[in-house]
Structure formats: C-alpha cells, structure tokens
Amino acid sequence: MQQPENMGKSGFVAIIGPPNAGKSSLLNAFLGHKLAIVTPKPQTTRNQISGILTRPGLQIVFLDTPGIHKPASRMNSLVVQVAWQALSGADLAILVCDVFLAATKPDRFLSELELMRSRISGLGIPLLIAVNKIDLLKNRNAVVPIIDQLSRLFPGAEIIPVSASARDNTEHLLSQIPPLLPEGPAMFPDDQLSTLPMRFLASEIIREKLFFSLERELPYSLAVGIEMWDQDPARDLVTIHAVIYVPKQSHKGIVIGQRGQRLKQVGQQAREELEDLADMHIHLQLWVKVKPRWTEDRNFVLQFLPELTG
Q1: Domain limits at 124?
Q2: 282 - beta bridge partners?
Q3: Rounded to an integer, what distance in angstroms lies between the CA atom of residue 100 and that of residue 18?
Q4: Which of 42, 227, 231, 272 could form a cystine bridge with 19, CB 3.0-4.6 A?
C-alpha cells in the first residue's frame, strides 16, 4: 500500500548503557535543552525518561533509561528492570559507551558490556553505538582500537564517536536515526517536549540538587515524592509540597544541614529551575522523613517507578 507523502518517520529510540556512560547528557544534547538530570555520580537516572524531538517529517521519542548494572538491592533490581523494559517497545536502540573508561579501565569496560551484549544482540532491532566522552581523551586516535573492539562485539552496528556534554558529533549521530525508523505519523503534538508530567520533573529536579549538594553514597538512599501540587492559573502560581525520604535518622540531619541551610539551598535552586521550566511562579516547601530500609521495600519503591506499575 502506498504511504501518504506527508507520512514521515516516527518511532521510539531507547538510549541504553552502563551507569555514568552519559545517556542523560546525550538525551539533553538531542533535544537541545535539559530534560534528564545529569550529575557526575553513576546510577543517577532511576526512571525511563521520555523526550520528544519533532522536526518536519520526523518525530523521535527518546527513552533515556537507568544504567544497566549488577543490582545490589531490591530497588536496583527494579531500576534495571525499567531499563530492559524500555527496549521491548523500541524501534531502535542507542548503546552509549564510555570511551574514557575503555581507555583507562578496559577490564571494567568489557565487564559492563558483557552484561548487555547477548540481550542486546537478540533484540531484533537496529543498533547504533555512541562512543561517548571523546573530549576526555588526550589522544583522539586512542578511540580507534576501542571502535574495532566494539565492532567485534556488536557486528553490523554503526559506531559513532561523540561527546554528549560538549555536543560534539551528536548531530551526526542524530542524522543516522531517521533512516532506521518506520514510516508513520507523529504520535504527539509538535510543541510537546516530553511524556512526563510536571510533578515527576519537579521530583527529579529536587533529587538532582540533592545529588550535587551531598557527598559520598547518601544521594543513592534518597527518594523524593510530591505530596501536594496546587496550580492557581489566576495567580500564575504553583504550590508544591515535596518529601525527601531517607533511611536513617542520622541522614535526616545531613540533608537538612546546619540551621536548615542545605535544605534551604536545595529548595531555592530547585525552585529557580522549576520556574524556568514551568514559566510560572513556584512556591516550594520541602520536608525530610525517615523511612527505614526503603530501598528494600518493593511496594514503596514502585511508587517511584510508574513504568513497572502501569
């Protein structure tokens, strides 16, 4: 059957890879604005973050996924499940690899890829490989043997060196996607940038500010829930009440900080970013609650992973 001339291309593209490879940075580079939170710490993304890129005759729904790793807790097991689930409905996968890790810690690099290789190879969908962080290499020629290695592990895949943070060669990578997508009409309005509700984006922005403010492992034991969201268009105001969950009483004081200064700073930074995003005034209130061993409580964790609960 002949397709209409204005049918165009549209489809779902899953961005996958190990923790801290730069998946969220790549999503933000594709979209031209920040959607997914980005920190120097691995395993920042817990959810499937959906961003929509619409151009004439083209609509791509990008699925940024949590880093695939060996889970050490019930929460991590569910997070990895989110990553694999994103692939089940994708038309194309982009595997993001950390070329700096490959150059400095090759054994760890290969170990991370082995976790994914057989499952990715059996997907039956096209695969692009983004060799990320080339800006960190002192000698760009060091990427050549790494590309050769990846071509043997994933035969037939197109391999493209990029720097997502510097947006170096990301437009070339993006240009390789449309020919691999099915023909079809746009699935979302032209001006829609994400499938995510603002409530989710608010919780992610608060969590990002906590990641930057806190050191060591404490950020991984935090969860942020939005308890109240009240939008008043007449006053151009959104009132948000958010709760930061921590597993230990001692963590509560760390998050709050001396005389409440850390919590106040996190709230101010999150409010400013939310006002830019929502183009409205934001009144944000934060509380900290203790929830012992919450990362092992499946029902509690699932509140923050809507992809697994439908």
Answers
A1: 9-180
A2: 238
A3: 13
A4: 42
